[in-house]
Amino acid sequence: MEELDIVKLTRYVNDNIVVFHQNRIKHIQTLSLKKILKRKNPYLFRGKNILTAQDLIKPILDAYLSSQEETIFGDFLEELAIFVCGEVFGGFKSAAEGIDLEFTRKNIRYLVSIKSGPNWGNSSQIQRMKSNFKQAQKILGSSIKEAQVTFVNGCCYGQDGKPNKGDYWKICGQAFWELISGNERLYIEIIEPLGHKAKEKNDAFYIEYTRILNCFTLEFGKEFCDNGIINWKKLVEYNSKNKR
C-alpha cells in the first residue's frame, strides 16, 4: 500500500475536470428542441397551466441537461476512483464485463462496479450487475491467487445502512473512498480541487446555456404558438401522434 499523494491527486483532478466542463458545453451545442420535446410529457405542462414558451422550455431543458450531467460527471468520478486506487493499491480497470475496478487489499481481491450514487438502478439492472459478478468470478477464478474474492457495488456518494447484500457489498460515500484509498478523509479532500476554476467554467457554460434557451424559445414560438398562444393540440400531435 502506498500513501496517496494529495498534490498528485489535485493535479489529476485539475487536468481531467476540464473534460467534464468541455463535454457539458459540447452536449448542449448538439441539442435540438424537437429532440427534447419528444421526451417530455405535454399533458403535465398543460396541467400546470403553463402559458409562456420560456416557462415550458426552461424546465424541459434543465431536466434534460441535469440527467446528462449526472452521466458525464459519473464517468469522471469512475475514472477518478480508478486513478486513486491505482496510486494506492495498484488497482486497475478490469477486463471483465461490468467490472470497473479490480484491486487487492490485505489479501482480498476486490471486484468493483462503480456507480455515482446509491439509487442508481432498478431490479433488472441490479440483477445484471450480480450476473456480471458471477461471470467475472468464473473468468478470473484461475488467475486469482488470493483466498477471498469480494464483490462490491461502490457508490461515490451517499449512504447505505445495510451494506451486506449477501453475494456482494454495497459500499457508499466515505466508506467507498476509504476502501479504495485507505484514507478515511478522502471523500472530503476531493471536494476542494473539484472547485478549482469552477466559476470560470460555469460562466462559459451559462453563456452557451442562455443562448440555447433563447434560440429554443424563439423556435418553439414559431413552431408551436399561434399569435403568441401555445397550440397544445399541435404540440401533443408532434409528441404522440402515430406515424403512418
Structure description:
The N and C termini lie far apart (64 Å). The relative contact order is 0.15. The chain has helices at residues 6-29, 33-38, 42-47, 53-89, 123-140, 173-181, 186-189, 191-194, 198-224, 232-240; strands at residues 101-105, 108-115, 148-155, 169-172, 225-226, 229-230. The protein has a four-stranded mixed sheet, sandwiched between helices. Strands 5-6 form a two-stranded antiparallel sheet. The mean pLDDT is 89. Helices cover 59% and strands 12% of the residues. It is elongated and about 70 Å long. Helix 1 (6-29) packs antiparallel against helix 4. By secondary structure, it is of the alpha/beta class. The protein is built from ten helices and six strands; from the N terminus they run H-H-H-H-E-E-H-E-E-H-H-H-H-E-E-H. The protein has one domain.
| SS class | alpha/beta
Distance between the termini: 64 Å
Strand arrangement, major sheet: 1-2-3-4
Note the quaternary state here.
single chain
Q: What's the β-strand tally?
A: 6
Radius of gyration: 23 Å
Order of helices and strands: HHHHEEHEEHHHHEEH
Tell me, what's the shape? Answer: elongated
Mean pLDDT comes to 89
What does the main sheet amount to? 4 strands, mixed
User: How many structural domains can be distinguished in the coordinates?
Assistant: 1
User: Total helix count?
Assistant: 10
Helix content: 55-70%
Query: How much of the residues is beta strand, in percent?
Result: 5-15%
Which parts are unreliable, with pLDDT below 50 for 5 consecutive residues or more?
none
